[in-house]
Amino acid sequence: xxxxxxxxxxxxxxxxxxxxxxxxxxxxxxxxxxxxxxxxxxxxxxxxxxxxxxxxxxxxxxxxxxxxxxxxxxxxxxxxxxxxxxxxxxxxxxxxxxxxxxxxxxxxxxxxxxxxxxxxxxxxxxxxxxxxxxxxxxxxxxxxxxxxxxxxxxxxxxxxxxxxxxxxxxxxxxxxxxxxxxxxxxxxxxxxx
Length: 193
Fold this sequence. Notes:
Helices cover 18% and strands 36% of the residues. It is of the alpha+beta class.
Protein backbone atom coordinates (compact mmCIF):
# COMPACT_ATOMS: atom_id res chain seq x y z
CA UNK A 1 0.00 0.00 0.00
CA UNK A 2 1.31 3.45 -0.86
CA UNK A 3 1.09 6.74 0.99
CA UNK A 4 -2.67 6.56 1.41
CA UNK A 5 -1.66 4.75 4.60
CA UNK A 6 -1.69 8.22 6.08
CA UNK A 7 -5.52 8.19 6.33
CA UNK A 8 -6.87 4.86 5.08
CA UNK A 9 -6.05 2.81 8.21
CA UNK A 10 -7.96 5.37 10.27
CA UNK A 11 -11.02 4.90 8.07
CA UNK A 12 -10.73 1.11 8.10
CA UNK A 13 -10.36 1.15 11.90
CA UNK A 14 -13.37 3.48 12.27
CA UNK A 15 -15.46 1.10 10.15
CA UNK A 16 -14.34 -1.82 12.31
CA UNK A 17 -14.87 -0.07 15.64
CA UNK A 18 -18.35 1.15 14.56
CA UNK A 19 -19.40 -2.12 12.89
CA UNK A 20 -22.14 -2.84 15.46
CA UNK A 21 -23.89 0.41 14.53
CA UNK A 22 -25.47 -0.41 11.13
CA UNK A 23 -26.04 3.27 10.38
CA UNK A 24 -22.27 3.84 10.49
CA UNK A 25 -22.23 2.77 6.82
CA UNK A 26 -24.49 5.73 5.96
CA UNK A 27 -22.60 8.59 4.34
CA UNK A 28 -23.76 12.04 3.25
CA UNK A 29 -22.82 12.83 -0.37
CA UNK A 30 -22.85 16.37 -1.72
CA UNK A 31 -22.92 17.08 -5.45
CA UNK A 32 -23.58 20.18 -7.54
CA UNK A 33 -26.91 20.68 -9.33
CA UNK A 34 -27.12 22.10 -12.86
CA UNK A 35 -28.05 25.51 -11.40
CA UNK A 36 -24.92 25.55 -9.21
CA UNK A 37 -26.69 24.83 -5.92
CA UNK A 38 -25.46 22.00 -3.70
CA UNK A 39 -27.42 18.78 -3.36
CA UNK A 40 -26.89 16.47 -0.38
CA UNK A 41 -28.26 13.04 0.39
CA UNK A 42 -27.49 9.93 2.43
CA UNK A 43 -26.06 6.90 0.64
CA UNK A 44 -24.73 3.53 1.82
CA UNK A 45 -21.04 2.62 1.68
CA UNK A 46 -20.63 -0.69 -0.20
CA UNK A 47 -16.90 -1.30 0.24
CA UNK A 48 -13.56 -0.50 -1.32
CA UNK A 49 -13.01 -0.97 -5.04
CA UNK A 50 -10.44 -3.55 -6.09
CA UNK A 51 -8.39 -3.43 -2.83
CA UNK A 52 -7.77 0.28 -3.29
CA UNK A 53 -8.77 3.37 -1.28
CA UNK A 54 -11.55 4.07 -3.82
CA UNK A 55 -15.00 3.93 -2.21
CA UNK A 56 -18.08 2.31 -3.74
CA UNK A 57 -21.78 3.14 -3.54
CA UNK A 58 -24.81 2.26 -5.66
CA UNK A 59 -27.49 4.37 -7.28
CA UNK A 60 -30.35 4.37 -9.72
CA UNK A 61 -29.22 5.87 -13.05
CA UNK A 62 -32.52 7.77 -13.16
CA UNK A 63 -31.74 9.68 -9.94
CA UNK A 64 -30.58 13.31 -9.96
CA UNK A 65 -27.25 12.48 -8.28
CA UNK A 66 -26.17 10.38 -11.26
CA UNK A 67 -26.94 13.22 -13.68
CA UNK A 68 -25.11 15.64 -11.38
CA UNK A 69 -22.04 13.40 -11.20
CA UNK A 70 -22.02 12.93 -14.97
CA UNK A 71 -22.08 16.70 -15.42
CA UNK A 72 -19.59 17.46 -12.63
CA UNK A 73 -17.89 14.32 -11.26
CA UNK A 74 -16.46 15.89 -8.09
CA UNK A 75 -18.34 15.28 -4.87
CA UNK A 76 -17.69 15.41 -1.16
CA UNK A 77 -18.68 12.89 1.46
CA UNK A 78 -19.25 13.64 5.11
CA UNK A 79 -19.08 10.53 7.23
CA UNK A 80 -19.62 10.60 10.98
CA UNK A 81 -18.84 7.59 13.17
CA UNK A 82 -20.95 7.82 16.35
CA UNK A 83 -19.13 5.24 18.47
CA UNK A 84 -15.63 6.66 17.98
CA UNK A 85 -16.66 10.30 17.43
CA UNK A 86 -14.74 10.70 14.17
CA UNK A 87 -15.69 12.66 11.09
CA UNK A 88 -14.22 12.05 7.64
CA UNK A 89 -14.79 14.49 4.80
CA UNK A 90 -13.63 12.84 1.59
CA UNK A 91 -13.66 14.55 -1.79
CA UNK A 92 -12.71 13.52 -5.29
CA UNK A 93 -14.09 12.62 -8.70
CA UNK A 94 -16.69 9.88 -8.94
CA UNK A 95 -17.05 7.49 -11.85
CA UNK A 96 -20.55 6.26 -12.70
CA UNK A 97 -20.47 2.64 -13.87
CA UNK A 98 -23.68 1.84 -15.71
CA UNK A 99 -24.89 -0.89 -17.99
CA UNK A 100 -22.99 0.51 -20.98
CA UNK A 101 -19.63 1.01 -19.27
CA UNK A 102 -16.80 -0.75 -21.03
CA UNK A 103 -14.17 -1.45 -18.40
CA UNK A 104 -13.35 -3.83 -15.57
CA UNK A 105 -15.74 -1.92 -13.32
CA UNK A 106 -18.65 -3.79 -14.92
CA UNK A 107 -17.70 -6.97 -13.05
CA UNK A 108 -17.57 -5.01 -9.77
CA UNK A 109 -21.03 -3.60 -10.62
CA UNK A 110 -22.37 -7.13 -11.10
CA UNK A 111 -20.76 -8.42 -7.88
CA UNK A 112 -22.23 -5.63 -5.78
CA UNK A 113 -25.65 -6.24 -7.35
CA UNK A 114 -25.41 -9.91 -6.31
CA UNK A 115 -24.52 -8.90 -2.73
CA UNK A 116 -27.48 -6.56 -2.28
CA UNK A 117 -30.35 -7.66 -0.05
CA UNK A 118 -33.43 -8.73 -2.00
CA UNK A 119 -35.53 -5.71 -0.86
CA UNK A 120 -32.83 -3.36 -2.18
CA UNK A 121 -32.77 -5.14 -5.56
CA UNK A 122 -36.58 -4.96 -5.68
CA UNK A 123 -36.44 -1.19 -5.06
CA UNK A 124 -34.62 -0.82 -8.40
CA UNK A 125 -37.78 -2.08 -10.17
CA UNK A 126 -39.84 0.80 -8.81
CA UNK A 127 -40.77 3.86 -10.87
CA UNK A 128 -38.08 6.51 -11.45
CA UNK A 129 -36.94 8.33 -8.28
CA UNK A 130 -38.23 11.87 -7.93
CA UNK A 131 -41.13 11.49 -10.36
CA UNK A 132 -44.66 12.27 -9.11
CA UNK A 133 -46.17 9.33 -7.24
CA UNK A 134 -49.58 7.92 -8.03
CA UNK A 135 -50.81 6.70 -4.64
CA UNK A 136 -53.54 4.63 -6.30
CA UNK A 137 -51.00 2.39 -8.01
CA UNK A 138 -48.95 0.07 -5.78
CA UNK A 139 -45.24 -0.17 -6.37
CA UNK A 140 -44.30 -3.31 -8.26
CA UNK A 141 -42.79 -6.15 -6.28
CA UNK A 142 -40.88 -7.64 -9.18
CA UNK A 143 -37.98 -9.80 -8.05
CA UNK A 144 -35.16 -9.12 -10.50
CA UNK A 145 -32.56 -11.70 -11.41
CA UNK A 146 -30.00 -11.92 -8.62
CA UNK A 147 -27.10 -12.36 -11.05
CA UNK A 148 -27.91 -9.70 -13.65
CA UNK A 149 -28.29 -6.04 -12.63
CA UNK A 150 -31.27 -4.13 -13.98
CA UNK A 151 -30.32 -1.64 -16.70
CA UNK A 152 -30.53 1.48 -14.52
CA UNK A 153 -28.46 0.07 -11.64
CA UNK A 154 -25.19 2.01 -11.27
CA UNK A 155 -22.03 1.55 -9.30
CA UNK A 156 -20.44 4.80 -8.07
CA UNK A 157 -16.67 4.77 -7.48
CA UNK A 158 -15.19 7.75 -5.65
CA UNK A 159 -11.44 8.28 -6.06
CA UNK A 160 -10.36 10.28 -2.96
CA UNK A 161 -8.17 13.33 -3.61
CA UNK A 162 -8.57 15.07 -0.25
CA UNK A 163 -9.45 13.70 3.18
CA UNK A 164 -10.24 15.84 6.21
CA UNK A 165 -10.19 13.73 9.38
CA UNK A 166 -11.51 15.20 12.63
CA UNK A 167 -11.29 13.23 15.89
CA UNK A 168 -13.85 14.79 18.20
CA UNK A 169 -12.55 13.12 21.36
CA UNK A 170 -10.27 15.13 23.59
CA UNK A 171 -9.86 18.80 24.27
CA UNK A 172 -8.63 20.13 21.97
CA UNK A 173 -9.70 17.69 19.26
CA UNK A 174 -7.31 16.48 16.56
CA UNK A 175 -7.65 17.21 12.85
CA UNK A 176 -5.59 16.27 9.79
CA UNK A 177 -5.97 17.20 6.14
CA UNK A 178 -4.53 14.85 3.54
CA UNK A 179 -4.01 15.82 -0.12
CA UNK A 180 -3.26 13.43 -2.92
CA UNK A 181 -0.25 14.73 -4.81
CA UNK A 182 0.22 11.91 -7.30
CA UNK A 183 -0.99 8.42 -8.14
CA UNK A 184 0.65 6.93 -5.05
CA UNK A 185 1.62 9.94 -2.99
CA UNK A 186 -0.30 11.72 -0.23
CA UNK A 187 0.71 14.62 1.95
CA UNK A 188 -0.82 15.04 5.39
CA UNK A 189 -0.83 18.00 7.75
CA UNK A 190 -2.21 18.29 11.26
CA UNK A 191 -4.29 21.47 11.51
CA UNK A 192 -6.24 23.27 14.19
CA UNK A 193 -9.69 21.70 14.76
